[in-house]
């Protein structure tokens, strides 16, 4: 697991907009992105809420107004997921800035149980 403070992810969280998975790479590597409500850093509830958010196969958890935690079997994969999360956030923000929110990406093509 790695913990980061990706700026565009945090901006979208602050304005109440979810990160949209815009590409097939986003869908394959991220699958689902969860957000937990704001809890001041250092409180035990942060870990509890983040762990609960990961029980359904979610591997990226946005800690509202703080940062994100990314889970993977290796640091390389966690880093790749973190990069794709920030990339998806940048694309989401740009689309919103253009007044053209991204349509949800179909994910029915993903193989159940397969993970990156």
From TrEMBL:
The keyword Metal-binding applies. Keywords: Lyase, Metal-binding. SUPFAM superfamilies: AraD/HMP-PK domain-like. Residues 2-92 form the Class II aldolase/adducin N-terminal domain. This is Class II aldolase/adducin N-terminal domain-containing protein.
């Amino acid at each position: 697991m790695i913990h980061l403070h990706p700026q565009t992810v945090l901006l979208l969280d602050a304005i109440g907009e979810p990160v949209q998975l815009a590409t097939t790479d986003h869908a394959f590597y991220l699958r689902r992105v969860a957000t937990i409500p704001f809890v001041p850093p250092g409180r035990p509830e942060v870990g509890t809420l983040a762990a609960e958010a990961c029980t359904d196969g979610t591997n990226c958890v946005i800690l509202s107004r703080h940062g994100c935690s990314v889970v993977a079997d290796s640091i390389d994969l966690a880093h790749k997921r973190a990069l794709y999360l920030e990339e998806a956030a940048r694309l989401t923000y740009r689309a919103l800035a253009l007044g053209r929110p991204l349509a949800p990406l179909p994910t029915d093509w993903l193989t159940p149980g397969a993970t990156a």
